[in-house]
Amino acid sequence: MNIEELKRTIPEMFERIRRDVQKVLGQRRAGLSLGFVDMGMSPQGFVGGMFFSGGTMILMNTRALRVLLEDAVNRENPEIAEYYVYHVLMHEYIHSLGYLDERECREVTAYVTHELFPHNHPITIMADRGIGVYFPRFIYAPENIAFEPPRDGSIELVKGFDRGSTTYFT
Ligand SMILES: [Zn+2]
Q1: What is the value of pTM for the model shown?
Q2: At residue 110, does pLDDT exceed 90?
Q3: Exposed site from 20, 37, 49, 118, fewest CB < 10 Å?
């Protein structure tokens, strides 16, 4: 699997996440769009995804996707990259349901994940302990990190994501 193939799986994965979250929390949100953008990576940590409060767009960091996929493939564990995408996307989606506080969002994400997956599943382990368990070379950004939202022009809007929504965050 390469980065383009991984990106193509994402709209369907998002639909699954919406069903999964609804099963557990009874909440669902429409009117979201997804964008890919290169938010870089640094030794101080990286941001896997973003949701703008009050906005309608979830962003995924393509640099992190590419680097983590490469890392997973090199360790002959490519499916861990898909688990990473599921985890990050669910985290950002749960933000979009109104859980804006970072700690609360992590707790709710972990709760939902435990209801859906066995306790020893990689997605559950990521939700409990962070992605560093699987990607020890890369540090996830601290929760209070200040991050400049990328400019709209650098965002690649994902086709087929949450059909019926064309709202664009500005
Ligand atoms: Zn968050």
Answers
A1: 0.89
A2: yes
A3: 118
